[in-house]
Amino acid sequence: MADEKEAVQTEEQEQQFIIERIYVKDISFEAPNSPSIFTLEWEPDTSLNLNTNVNALGGDHYEVELQVTVSVKSHDKTAFLVEVTQAGAFLIKGYPEEQLNHLLASFCPSNLFPYAREVIANLVSKGSFPEMHLSPINFDALYAQRLEEEKAKSEK
Q: What is the pTM of this model?
């Protein structure tokens, strides 16, 4: 009984999740129809695209990239296009594979998104466009949806 308790405590002590660094890896802002777009009434049509990428760095270290692309059109003309790759270096140790996948695909992007959202808001503001505030994103729901899609594909 005491050995089991010690084993559980050892397992719990070995689990680590540490954010080592958060940084902008790539950034782009384009306003191809400036300044003529400013003379039109502002009727934004916004498109948001998210993508994640995980790079194993070795020794329980991972880089997670969150790529966010925001395209805004007004009167069928592109007002601006913002692309940000917000990345983080994480130490993730002692988790079973299923939990590790969840951390890398959901929890890490959830931590990165507020930083990407801030970068995008600043770029849009500096481009002289109305303020842009991206709504929070439920990465857990996106992860669950992806698992369901993969399960459905494997059952076919």
A: 0.85
